[in-house]
Design goal:
oxidoreductase, alpha/beta, binds D-Mannitol-1-phosphate, binds nicotinamide-adenine-dinucleotide, NAD(P)-bd_dom_sf, EC 1.1.1.17
């Protein structure tokens, strides 16, 4: 069985490929993978120059003990770039061995492309991931329509990832005039599952890794011990991809929403909040942040008082996840830099914190609001990696604050209504962000955080 994998990033290499490799080695599966470069770069080519092999270094705390395992990934036997090898891609679509597609193209990849929609049958020119997948499926339909059900498993961290991708493919097919026969085949023979993944994959390990004695590995991936993959869709997937053959943490559920809320509101929201507040007070990593004597209590109170009450799952399930999250944050093997989590916060903050603020509504969420205020404070200086348009708009507002034309509270309100207005932030929340931002400006971020976390100055650093 062959998997077509759109994406060669660290996450898929330390998650899906790690599972496929273990299924082959430990459960007798025969899973081969072809890597497809989602954008026109040389990532796949460089991996294939190393034989399509790399090491996954898995380290963390599990069952109260330190665990460590190395897995050399050997299930990838081919790779291609649709931009430089369109014929190879079309040939891949004609391979009846292909029964599964996986993808991770970041939150930006599952998006409509008007340019691709206008290409008609000039398929080889497509640029977007949904465009490439539609081209792949059109070729499969035209040549091997009876090759068996194809399962599509996107892992991008957006709600309803599979359903959204399916809708984009249907729309692209319409734009290309592929006709009702294709749409009927698509509905019958291609199953898009919604999925939710969880594993912290910070990138390459801090120490050099060898593929074999004397053979350096240029592409090793460090992963934590924990992993989970929740799937919404038919269990028939297991007939072609036996994810149940090992002790993998893979679960079929009828509704992903409560699990997505749990993961995004606890792990990702706290990550984004601590990345902003921690950076503002000079803390470098996740592990340092949770053990910091001001940041740590603030994060704990934020979780217990403002996030946990918004979750729609049994209390013990929430408690188990949050306890595990704290252990994962403290993973002594991983130096997860706040700076990398801070990347693109203007989009991540609404996506990760927005629903919490909305659910809190009139009740307000002053602890959460501090995370947003800390990020706004950071925009005052240079050095953030984020959308240039957003940074330019916020910089313009800071200039008006400097000239006395705007208060910091007004700046907060304008940013939350404009560049970060993907969420209709409740008014009490906007006011809380504004007053934190003002206090950060006058007292400094550490003193302001100490006040909001209710940590006595004498007890703090
Ligand atoms: N690393 C983690 O801990 C982790 C865990 C769970 C989920 N994720 C999700 O994975 C994503 C990041 O992936 P990664 O950690 O492998 O990083 P990465 O930078 O190593 O890989 C990113 C991949 O996305 C592709 N890509 C980027 N923009 C694209 C676009 N506009 N269209 C198509 N493809 C595009 C790149 O070519 C590359 O293959 C994030 O969006 C995150 O939400 C990451
Ligand atoms: O990958 P990013 O940069 O979008 O976000 C950083 C982390 O919050 C994220 O990668 C988590 O580690 C991951 O979502 C855990 O499953």
């Amino acid at each position: 069985m062959r998997v077509v994998q759109f994406g060669e990033g660290v996450f898929l290499r330390g998650f899906a490929d790690w599972m496929f490799q273990r299924l082959n080695a430990e459960a007798g599966a025969d899973i081969r993978v072809t890597l497809v470069q989602p954008r026109n770069s040389d990532g796949v080519a460089r991996l294939m120059a190393q034989g399509g092999r790399w090491t996954v270094v898995q380290q963390g705390l599990h069952d109260g003990a330190e665990q460590s395992r190395r897995t050399v990934i050997e299930c990838v036997d081919s790779g291609l770039n649709t931009h430089t090898n369109p014929h190879g891609f079309a040939a891949l679509a004609r391979d009846p061995q292909v029964r599964v597609v996986v993808s991770n193209t970041t939150e930006a990849g599952i998006a409509w492309s008007e340019e691709d929609a206008g290409l008609g049958d000039r398929r080889a020119e497509v640029r977007s991931f949904p465009g490439k997948l539609t081209w792949f499926l059109a070729e499969r339909f035209a040549t091997i329509p009876a090759a068996g059900t194809l399962f599509v498993l996107p892992v991008e961290l957006i709600a309803d990832n599979g359903s959204t991708l399916a809708a984009l493919v249907r729309r692209m097919a319409d734009a290309w005039g592929l006709g009702p026969e294709f749409q009927a085949w698509l509905a019958d023979q291609v199953i898009f599952l919604d999925t939710l993944v969880d594993r912290i994959v910070p990138g390459r390990p801090s120490r050099p890794v060898e593929l074999a004695p004397g053979v350096p590995d240029a592409f090793p991936v460090q992963v934590e011990w924990f992993h989970s993959w929740y799937l919404r869709g038919p269990r028939e997937l297991l007939d072609v991809l036996p994810l149940d053959a090992l002790d993998l943490n893979v679960r079929f559920v009828s509704d992903l929403r409560p699990y997505r809320d749990l993961k995004v509101r606890v792990l990702n929201a706290l990550h984004s909040a601590m990345a902003a507040a921690g950076t503002a007070i000079g803390v470098e990593s996740v592990a340092e942040a949770v053990d910091h004597d001001v940041l740590g209590p603030w994060l704990r109170r934020l979780l217990d008082e403002e996030i946990a009450p918004t979750l729609d799952l049994p209390a013990d399930e929430v408690a188990d996840f949050t306890a595990a999250t704290w252990d994962r944050y403290r993973n002594p093997f991983i130096h997860h830099r706040l700076e990398s989590i801070l990347l693109n916060s203007s989009a991540k903050i609404p996506a990760r914190l927005g629903d919490i603020a909305l659910d809190r509504g009139e009740e307000g969420s002053p602890l959460l609001a501090f995370g947003v205020a800390a990020w706004l404070h950071l925009t005052r200086g240079a050095g953030l990696s984020d959308s240039p348009e957003v940074l330019a708009a916020v910089a313009g507002l800071w200039e008006r604050v400097a000239s006395g034309d705007l208060t910091v509270e007004e700046l907060a309100a304008r940013v939350l209504a404009g560049p970060m207005g993907a969420v209709a932030w409740p008014q009490p929340f906007v006011a809380e962000v504004g007053s934190h931002l003002a206090r950060i400006g006058t007292a400094g971020p550490l003193t302001a955080l100490r006040a909001v976390a209710a940590v006595e100055a004498t007890a703090a650093r």
